[in-house]
Amino acid sequence: MATLTDAPQGWYDSRNHSPYYTEEDVKVRQAFRDFVEKEIMPYRDEWDAAGKIPDELYLKAGNVGLLAAAIGWPEDVSPLPRPKNWSMLGSLIAMDELSRCGSGGIVWGLIGGLGIGLGPIYHGGTDEMREKVVKPALRGEVKVCLAVSEAQAGSDLAGLTTTADEQGDFFIINGNKKWITGGKFADFASVAVKLNDGSKGFAAIRLVLVPMKTPGITVREMSCMGAKGSGTAFIEFDDVKVPKENLIGTADLMLRNFVAERVGCVARSRGALTGD
Fold it and tell me: Cα separation of 95 and 107, whole Å?
């Protein structure tokens, strides 16, 4: 197995000077590597076969900072102090190390839904949402997903058909979402809806925080090749009543997420393929 001193890729190789990859990053990388080696690798095949990650792993991942790293380690809500001089490189290192486990289901199940669903809540949500959802999610106590994609529209935000009608102090949500990573076991979802207020296209899209135990929600797991354990699901909303105070924000919050999501995709591909 490669070590910190003989890793073949340039930015991990201690023989190559880098102004970005610091001694602090080396320590962070080793901490995450130790976690993956001890807490995931011995059980990977068992969890893959079962198609389920134990809840205890989320708590352990929260305790080591892996969940915080997945969304950029926001210091004001993190359960752990952020490492010195933390940057997006640290998040890339975390995802790269986790991906060494070689299981898409474990990677997606552990940080997939959280990585794309929690960011909008942190950046656009209220202080109450941060206390109720963001902080416990980073501790591994609750799970979050992002519910945007639809069978009718894919990820075409302007073409989404899930609607939110205003009824007094509530939104009434109807529609469906497909390919939702972590949807099977999520406690909360950041749901993209189209307001029925006369707005058109992209301007009508809002993100609403929906507790997944709310009446009217039906969740069906999807069987995804190579990603068992990801909890990918088909979700239906049938007159789901959510307080207007659960409004997270506009569609620009999803666009803000895209950069970090793409970095995560690259890291997961590299880490899983090379395993070093």
Answer: 8
How far apart are the C-alpha atoms of 51 and 263, rounded to whole Å? 26
Here the tokens at position 155 are 């990820």
Please answer whether residues 236 and 91 qualify as being in contact, where contact means their C-beta atoms are separated by less than 8 angstroms.
no
The amino acid at residue 237 is F
Domains and CATH numbers, the chain: 10-141+257-274 (1.10.540.10), 144-250 (2.40.110.10)
DSSP 8-state secondary structure symbol assigned to residue 20: S
Say what the pLDDT of residue 267 is: 67
Question: Minimal CA–CA distance to 110: which of 37, 56, 31, 43?
Answer: 56
For tokens 């995560």, what's the residue?
Answer: 264
Predicted TM-score (pTM) of the model is: 0.89
SS3 category, 145: strand
| CA–CA gap between residue 231 and residue 106 (Å, rounded) | 10
- Output phi, psi for 227, to 5 deg: -140, 35
Q: What residue type is 155 in one-letter code? A: S
1-17 burial: b if 16+ Cβ within 10 Å, else e? eeeeeeeeeeebbeeee
Instruction: Report residue 233: phi and psi, to 5°.
Output: -145, 160
Mean pLDDT by 10 residues, the chain (276 residues): 46 73 88 95 92 94 95 92 88 90 91 92 95 97 95 81 96 96 96 87 92 98 82 96 96 77 66 50
Tokens 């960011």 locate to 119
Q: Which two tokens stand for residue 246?
A: 């659960």
**Are the C-beta atoms of 119 and 71 separated by less than 8 Å?**
yes
* Of 231, 225, 249, 248, residue with least CA distance to 182: 231
3-state DSSP: the chain helix, strand, coil percent, rounded to 5?
45, 20, 35
